[in-house]
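Pipeline run #58 for the internal structure catalog. This entry was flagged by the ingest filter as a single-chain record with no existing model, so it goes straight to prediction. Upstream metadata was stripped on purpose; only the residue string is passed forward. Reviewer on rotation: M.T. Logging verbosity set to normal.
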Amino acid sequence: MNKDELKGHWNKLQGSVKEKWGKLTDDEVAEIEGNKDQLVGKIQEKYGVAREEAEKQVDEWKNS
């Protein structure tokens, strides 16, 4: 799934994001609006992981 597909399908994917990263609030997930960089940043903030790890998690999630 590429960047444009992520944005286009964001409403459908929000539930999956909440399942994968349960520490993210509904408001935070809505605010991300399919922006990968924002999602990575929120994961870093909430889970205390490095940017590379957060990007890896997002890429694995997108490709699953």
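catalog note: The longest helix spans residues 51-63.
catalog note: DSSP finds five helices and no strands in the chain.
status: ready for reviewer M.T.
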